Amino acid sequence: MRIGVIGLGTMGAPMARHLLAAGHEVAVYNRTRVRAEPFAALGARVAATPADAARNAEVALVCVSDSPDVEAVLFDESDGAARGLADGALVIDCSTISPEATRRFAQRLAERGIGFVDAPVSGGSEGAEQATLAIMCGGSEDDLARARPVLECIGKAITHVGPVGAGQVAKAVNQVVIAGTYLSVAEGLVLAAKSGVDPARVVEAISGGAAASWVLDKRSGNMIADEYPLGFRLALHRKDLGIALDSARAVGATLAGAAHVAALEDGLIAQQHGDEDMSAIARAVRRASGVADGPL
Q: Which residue, 37, 118, 136, 198, has most beta carbons within 10 Å?
């Protein structure tokens, strides 16, 4: 299949590598060209613009940061991907963006006869590298069927949630749920440490029970060590929570827990921690409890 991959960040770069390894004909584009150039050695064509990446492609796979970025790479008047796609092509958007914007973008593409699947992902950088991402899809049955050969190269759990935009709603829910999970893991570890009990042994003790989670397994070690190497940027999660909170206001839902985590993240971003892994939420929890920086 001929695929244009637009966006080669923490998630997009592994996606492109998996597609090349599966034998697809891939063109790649990244705003910072130096990130795209190594893909030439893997057999990709390095494109000069999103329109160039989409030229002759059956599928354009987009993975960028936010709604304005998706709009720019798709619809820029001079070099947007929509200018390069032929009628009948398909856009798969793995970015995490507004459901409302997603529906607008899909409608604009539909007027050109171009299909659209919103396919935000979860699983962190590890899931992207290992092609084990969970993918939440919105779109028609026909478009999802066309997208599956691509999605199966980058993820394991592919769920059709509903029509266009439903995948982004599911991702908003995902980000709300993990916000609470990160916060509760951080709070639990601080409670253990201040009670004089080894937090690592507590993690071992509770991991086999109802408290087990991806966050407990994959990120409690960061919180215990007080080191937050990048897996998923805290500032990006704050952006995602903004989408969830906006969506909640639009439908009349109250998300008190998500709003609390958003406020904590705002404080951490102001303290220059926005580029750390999201598990850095533990910094705010530790400080509120008077826990000194350093390993618990």
A: 118
Q: How sure is the predictor about 163, in pLDDT bands with cuts at 50, 70 and 90?
A: very high
Give tens-digit pLDDT for 65-115. Answer: 999 999 999 999 999 999 999 999 999 999 999 999 999 999 999 999 999
Q: Please give the Cα distance from 159 to 137 (Å, whole number).
A: 6
> Tokens in use for 52?
């160039």
Helix (H, G, I), strand (E, B) or coil at 230: coil
pLDDT digit string, tens, across residues 139-148: 999 999 999 9
Cβ atoms of 182 and 279 within 8 Å: the answer is yes
Q: Which domains does the chain have, with CATH numbers?
A: 2-163 (3.40.50.720), 169-288 (1.10.1040.10)
* Closest C-alpha to 118, from 71, 169, 69: 169
CA atoms within 13 A on the CB side of 119: 35
Q: Which of 156, 171, 194, 218 is catalytic?
A: 171
> Which residue bears the tokens 């592994």?
14
